[in-house]
Amino acid sequence: MTNSNPYDFAPLQPTGRNETDTANTYAPEDMIKIYEQQFLIPVPEDKLTEFLPALKRFYDIDNNTLDVSAIIFDAIAESSIIYNHKIKVGDYQILGGLVEEAIEYDEDNKNDESVEDKEIQAYTLECQRTFFINDIEILYHFNLFIYGDGYSTLTKKDTVLEKMYWFVRGRFEEDLLDDSEDNDSLDSINKQLASLGIREMDLTTIDEIVSYVEDSIIDDAMVDELNKLLDDAE
Question: Which residues, 6+ apart, have CB-to-CB distance to 81 below 8 Å?
Answer without folding.
Answer: 36, 39, 40, 73
